[in-house]
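FYI - complex with nicotinamide-adenine-dinucleotide, inputs then prediction.
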Amino acid sequence: MSGGPTADPLEIGVTGASGRMGQEVRDVATERGMEIAFAVNRDADPQLDDVEPARRFERLVKETRPDVVIDFTGPESCVEYVTDAAEAEVPVVTGTTGFNAEQLEAIKAAGERIPILLGANFARGVQALIDAVESAVNALPEYDVELTETHHNGKRDAPSGTASLVLDRIEAARDVPSDRVYGRVGDAKRETGEIGVHARRAGDVTGEHEVLLAGNRETVSLTHRAGSRSVFAEGALDAAGWLETQPTGFYRFADVASQLTDTGDDQ
Ligand code: NAD
């Protein structure tokens, strides 16, 4: 996959460009020799840097027609950007999380007009974690399962989009339906089949997910820790390079993750 400059560098538009991930995407894209056609953010002041106010997105995406738009913003704005990008026939990679059912439907529906890829987590290690969790749940069907995720204190949605991906896979692997129990307080004895879900928000933690499986005399703990936000930016840009060549449709990061290798660009 793309890991360095090519003869025909990918040209991207970046939304949420001043946010944690937007900045990371711009940095990694620049390191890779990609072109940034435009960058927008909600509260941008073009006097300060080259990020434009988000209201200009519709015009910019039509005028510049980048190969792919990369979005790390919020669910409401993502749906708006995807609608405008579909109008301009420009593919979108979004890493935004926290969609409600209606917003998710709108994102999926855009796949009828453009290639669009949604990734709740662009770290390849998280894809491996999900596979490992499925295998452990299959091997230990009667064990109690609890999931704990930790993120920085600025994160809006809880539990994380990654936690939802992991929980979906656990539930699909189990024969019996599970009940997700979000935190516990008061008289809250654990019921059989429950999956406890715990969201911690503290400091600048990039992202951690731990799945604990416990029997009566043993525990299995599977954990992913993101060491840097660049791991997500790398995955999103790899996904963008892949998406550019795909036909119209709705894709997940899992569709491309197995084809990627670590380029070591982040060392
Ligand atoms: P952040 O708050 O640092 O950045 C979000 C940026 O989007 C901000 O600059 C904000 O001003 C901007 N924004 C919000 N609404 C906007 C709008 N309507 N128009 C234009 N700009 C708008 O957040 P972050 O840590 O960069 O995360 C952004 C999203 O990406 C979140 O949903 C987060 O959960 C998700 N995320 C996904 C991954 C992944 O691998 N998929 C990794 C990290 C974060």
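The pocket of nicotinamide-adenine-dinucleotide is lined by residues 15-16, 18-22, 41-43, 54, 72-74, 77, 95-98, 119-122, 154, 157, 232 (CB under 6 Å). The helical segments are 20-31, 57-64, 75-87, 101-110, 124-139, 161-173, 230-243, 254-257.
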